[in-house]
Structure formats: structure tokens, C-alpha cells
Design brief:
The longest helix is centred in the middle third of the chain and has 17 residues. It contains six helices and four strands, in the order ααβαββαβαα.
């Protein structure tokens, strides 16, 4: 049902098994790539916001997943990166989900959360990070509130 609704509302199409290579390429491509996980019934709202932000999309509606690829003029294209990440944040919020920055040039990734999660879980995430990485050597400054 959710897949049919997404086809009707967002112009999506069902892919057959021969499209697996296309899917893998789309998931791996792009200078800035974000994954949005959300309620499947709320994906059309997320699709609309991501498209408005300039994203090329790949959807897996049965799992409530969207991959959004954004083009950048270059690795230092901060304004386009901000627009893209803002669209991802708005899409995740509208779809009652979360987003993950999967790929971006180093200047865009620097100082940003890899897992931009809810503030409600930040204390727990930091405690787990300290438990498993007490010296803070794994992915320093990029995980769990800058730890």
C-alpha cells in the first residue's frame, strides 16, 4: 500500500530485480548523499521536501528509506551543502524520522555530526561512546555531540 501511494503521489516507480545495479550505483554516487529513514506513510512529504532542495532520489518505501543525492559545485560549496542538509533535516522531521549524512567532501563533513540524532538520546549516546572509546580515538570530533 505504501509503495502504491508513493508511486501515485511522488511519481516513483517499482524496480524489478534487474535494477539492482542501478540501485547500488545510486546509493554510492554523489558528492553529498543523505539517507532519510521515516515512516513509510510519511515518505511523500519527505520526497517533496528533498526534491525542492534539489535532490535526486532513490526510495525503498517498504522499509521507509530514501537516499538523496545532491550536486555540489565543488568540495567547498558550503551554501549548496547547507541547503541540502537543511532539506534533509526538514524531510526527516516531516516524515517523523531521522537522517544520516552518508557521504560528503571533507570540508562539508568537518565539524558536522555523522548521526544527527535527537537531543533526548545525546546523553545516552555519549555514555556509550565513552564506554567503548574511553580514549576518544575513534572518529574524534565527529560522533555523538562532537566526542
Amino acid at each position: 500500500q505504501d509503495a502504491d501511494a508513493l508511486v501515485r503521489s511522488a511519481g516513483a516507480r517499482n524496480a524489478d530485480t534487474t535494477d539492482l545495479d542501478v540501485v547500488r550505483t545510486a546509493q554510492a554516487a554523489g558528492p553529498l548523499r543523505v539517507r532519510v529513514a521515516a515512516l513509510p506513510s510519511a515518505l511523500p512529504a519527505a520526497v517533496e521536501l528533498l526534491r525542492a532542495g534539489g535532490a535526486a532520489l532513490l526510495a525503498y518505501p517498504a522499509r521507509g528509506l530514501l537516499w538523496a543525492r545532491f550536486e555540489l559545485e565543488g568540495p567547498d560549496d558550503e551554501r549548496a551543502a547547507e541547503r541540502a542538509l537543511s532539506a534533509a533535516k526538514q524531510a526527516a522531521r516531516a516524515a517523523h524520522g531521522a537522517y544520516l549524512l552518508e557521504a560528503a567532501p571533507l570540508p562539508v563533513r568537518t565539524g558536522r555530526e555523522v548521526f544527527p540524532g535527537a537531543l533526548a538520546t545525546l546523553a545516552l549516546e555519549r555514555a556509550v561512546k565513552r564506554q567503548y572509546d574511553p580514549a576518544g580515538i575513534l572518529n574524534p570530533g565527529r560522533f555523538v555531540g562532537g566526542l
